[in-house]
Amino acid sequence: MPKMMITTILVFIFVLPFTFAELRVGFYTSTCPRAERIVREVVESHFSKDESIVGGLLRLHFHDCFVRGCDGSVLIDPTRTRTSEKKAGPNLTARGFEIIDDAKTWLEQECPSTVSCADILALATRDSVELAGGKWYSIPTGRKDGLLSDPALVNLPSPSLSVSDALPFFTAKGLTLEDMVTLLGGHTVGFAHCSMFQNRLEGNGDPSMDPALEQTLVQICEFKKRPNSDPLAFLDQNTSFLFDNQFYHQMILRRGVLHIDQQLALDPLSRNMVQNFAANDSFFQEKFAKAMIKLGSIGVLDSTDGDIRKNCRAFNIPL
Ligand code: HEM
Ligand SMILES: *[C@@H]1O[C@H](CO)[C@@H](O)[C@H](O)[C@H]1NC(C)=O
Ligand SMILES: *[C@@H]1O[C@H](CO)[C@@H](O)[C@H](O)[C@H]1NC(C)=O
Ligand SMILES: *[C@@H]1O[C@H](CO)[C@@H](O)[C@H](O)[C@H]1NC(C)=O
């Protein structure tokens, strides 16, 4: 191998990772001291009207971080001339955008062009989880907003995967099996459309599903027979709006709505973790907070690859 090429490869391996932004807790302390307070107030006000925003924000943050990195690319609206991640398959149900818009509007008044949309999403998610009963954790900030939002880059795991087939999506982002099992605990809030689990109800049904749950889901999905309707079922059938470890308990009881969720409790790769989380809520909450910080650090941009959007739905320089 020519020396040049080896040098180039070494540069890629060792230098590139360090060009990513350094995140730190309190990044806005001097530039926008009230930034976290403002995000918190906006989230509180939305939550007081609609508890279900927690599921919306969590999933949005997850999708943001899993496509290119936590760079706010999930927030970009398609335009007449340019498409965006919102046009990709798993998009249609993503929600919570208006909360980010509200926080952004306020933050632009308070300290223009200072707080990134990617950070707003990370902070809003953290705050919403706490409002729903989860543990509060301090999160490092300083993310820049990305300059690209391409539906072709959206490659998210399908709910029909097995644990071992879902895992590579996480390891590709530097996350472990434990991180995956922990983060899927996010399914303790929020809901899924029938189209995401209906295959489990077909034929003789899925033998791994509690028959009582199957009956409930069949009834819910009956409405799907109407044109253009795709009803919702809670992912955690017991404490659907609480951020707690009940999700894992439900999986042990075979009350998983999504195939992947149910598999967590059955697969030898993950079932011990599920047992441990189901047995101890504080243990789950601690692990979840740590895993969220890892999730929130994926592929973060620095100022040479990103900027601070003035409107989270549009690039500063329209393309
Ligand atoms: C193997 C990985 C994952 C798969 C296959 C998966 C799949 C899904 C599916 C199919 C839905 C239902 C979407 C709908 O019908 O609207 C959903 C919802 C949701 N997911 Fe995941 N997910 C995964 C990982 C995660 C992670 C890591 C998080 C966050 C930590 C997360 C948070 C959520 C939340 C909160 C909802 C509810 C959304 C709402 O209420 O609008 N998921 N997920
Ligand atoms: C979501 O993606 C589908 C393609 O799978 C597209 O037809 C639809 O318009 C997108 N939804 C939104 C809100 O952009
Ligand atoms: C539902 O959750 C509550 C609170 O965590 C728990 O005490 C109860 O055992 C759960 N019920 C079922 C049927 O799982
Ligand atoms: C539950 O987890 C917490 C946090 O990891 C730990 O301090 C506590 O000892 C655990 N409780 C039990 C009963 O194992």
Characterize the structure shown.
- The protein has helices spanning 3-15, 35-49, 53-66, 97-110, 117-131, 163-171, 177-183, 211-222, 246-252, 259-266, 271-279, 281-295; strands at residues 24-25, 140-141, 191-193, 232-234.
- It is mainly α.
- It has a domain at 163-291: Orthogonal Bundle (Peroxidase, domain 2).
- It has a two-stranded antiparallel sheet. A two-stranded antiparallel ribbon has the order 3-4.
- Helix 9 packs across helix 11 (271-279).
- The longest helix is centred in the first third of the chain and has 15 residues, at 35-49.
- Mean pLDDT is 92; it is low at 13-19.
- The structure holds protoporphyrin IX containing FE and 2-acetamido-2-deoxy-beta-D-glucopyranose (3 copies).
- The site of one 2-acetamido-2-deoxy-beta-D-glucopyranose has 6 residues, from loops.
